[in-house]
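Usage example:
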Amino acid sequence: MVLPRYAWRRLYEQRLVVLLTMAAFVWPLLCAGFVYLTNHGELLQGLDPEFRAFIQVNGRFFSIFMYVQAGFAVFLTALAGPGLVAPDLANNALPLYFSRPLTRWSYALARLIVIVGMLSVVTWIPGLLLFALQVGLAGGWWFLANWTLGAGVVAGFLLWLLVLGLVAMASSVYVKWRVVAGAVSLAVFFILTGVSEMIDNVFRVTWGHVLDPAWAVNRVWCTLLGVNPPDGPGAGASMLSLAGFVLLLVLVIERKLRPVEVVR
Amino acid sequence: MNTTPVVELENLKVTLGRREILHGISCRLGVSGTGKAVGLLGPNGAGKSTLILTLLGFLRASSGRARILGLDCRHNMGEARSRIGYMPENDSFVGEMTAVTFLRQMAELSGLPPGAALEKAHEVLFHVGLGEARYRELRTYSYGMKQMAKLAQAIVHGPELVVLDEPTNGLDPAARRRMLKLVADMKQEQGMNVLICSHLLLDIEQVCDEVVILKDGAIVHQCNLEEERRSNRSFVELEVTGNDRNLRMALPEIGAEGVSEGAGRWRIVLPAGVEVEAIWALAARQDLLVRKLTHRRDTLEEIFLKAMGHLSHTPGEGAALSVGRT
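Running the assembly step on the lines above writes:
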């Protein structure tokens, strides 16, 4: 844990990262207020009964919470993720690391731990706290009936964080320049969304969505949270496409994260 | 008594792409724990850096074996890396870190506990002359300071072997002297073995005890500089005008041997006990006008030039034999 410890310290020395992390807590706080309100019916007296029935803490509530936090996670990754790896490549620091008892994979894992750890603070940890708040306010019966929501929030976010972490690392090892790597991390999602939409519209199909990792993760979340899924391929196909995407990113990292570059 | 070689190569071949860089080299260099320095000499493209990168496990041998401190470079690299320090040739640092944090991190990665790592980081930074600048970020350092920081990170964990790749490259004379003194201190005072890769003969000669010369991916010469120094031969570079055709025949009269480089230029080896005045006297007897005479106790350049094929043989070879016989 030597590398993550030093990396976290460097990470939170960046003012923008701290600011964005703090901004990412606004939505969870609002959601906590919502959870509090839904569990205190007396505060909602006077509101339309249909509206009162509509506002509930359920799969839909957690999915909306996750969409917003996932967006913050993307921007936080683009801002901070490349700063963990790209400078090491740009400054040729890898030979110094790898001449010590540290393998390429342990280096990559250490960096991934830092990114996932940083994003956990604004994703599944507040999600789990919201879940715990709801359980605390609603009682044990609610937990027994909805424990899958808590597990879904954690599993769904971890899947997203894995994708984000690998995208940040792959773009960093590929372009080696922090700012560009950040832009590439963002662009990957926009471009793939555009490509998948284009395929769907040109060929009048829906399977093009599986090329969009954001859509695929969303599809998996819907299944985990028991929310009505969007039109398109199922959760299994989405998981398969995500596995392929992750494999591709791992291959890029494997090819590029080397102490010496052999020019052929 | 420990006789584990620092580096042991057995028919080592390294191929990059389709090109074979090291063509089956075999040798045993240094003895672990003796505090000696081994120099890796050779022109650019000889395969010096490739050999170092293979020893560090960065490149994989296509065949043969390489051992460092008795540990196989393919199978026991983790253990080997905790016992070695490496200073790469190119700029290598983590720009956003202060020198002391950088060194502390590197020491911890090599297995030192955090407290000891911090203590060693301060100590080593003072030792290499960066004590006053240790809280500055590395990206603000001058080139010479970065070289020193690179050396510091290589020795911060007290390794048994330090691998230095062109340590004096780009340094001004004062910084170069300081770097070489630090390397000499490392082996003499701290008992570290040092493997230096360089194309600068003077650097190697100043700090190394053993030399390996590489050319086109093969070892063309290996010698013990200590023994060469002990033989106490001295070398003369002579430039004369006049008919010097008889000089080669006359040199053995004083026990010397030499080779002509043409245009009146000679390289002469004097055996122990023969002073340079004998050359003056010999030149006078041959009616030669001495235009230049440089006297030095230096062998490496001749050895290197012969290994590179620029000299037909090392002038000292015959002299050493004759000295040995008498």
